[in-house]
Amino acid sequence: MAQQATTIQNLTDEIKLLREQVSYLTQKRYGKSSEQMPLNGQTSLFDEPDAQDDGERPRRRRSNYYL
């Protein structure tokens, strides 16, 4: 009888631990995340104009398709 009580207690503790892990990982995966502001002196990838911003778009090569 004492062995059953010990087994039940161990399993109960394990279930509690697993539920805490699920809760933590769910919050980490689906919870709110803070968006960080860029640091001073850090350049942005989008501050510079496009390299091909000369008013014309590059022409696409046309493929010949035959049926």
Q: Can you give a write-up of this model?
A:
This protein is mostly helical and 67 residues long. It contains 1 helix and no strands. It is elongated, with a radius of gyration of 29 Å.
Task: Describe what is shown at a glance.
Pfam families: LZ_Tnp_IS66. By secondary structure, this protein is mainly alpha-helical.
Q: Which keywords apply here?
A:
67 residues, 1 helix, 43% helix, elongated, Transposase_TnpC_homeodom, coiled coil, IS66 family transposase
What is the first-to-last residue Cα distance?
A: 81 Å
Poorly predicted runs of 5 or more residues: none
| Major beta sheet summary | none
SSE string, helices as H and strands as E: H
Task: Give the helix tally.
Answer: 1
Categorize the overall geometry.
Answer: elongated
Measured on Cα atoms, how large is the radius of gyration? 29 Å
Beta-strand content bin: under 5%
Give the strand tally. 0
| Structural classification | mainly alpha
Into which percent range does the helicity of residues fall? 40-55%
What is the residue-mean pLDDT, rounded to a whole number? 80
Keywords: Coiled coil
InterPro entries: Transposase_TnpC_homeodom
Organism: Lactobacillus crispatus
Pfam family, one: LZ_Tnp_IS66
Furnish the topology, listing elements before pairings.
Layout (H helix, E strand, L loop, with lengths): L1 H29 L37
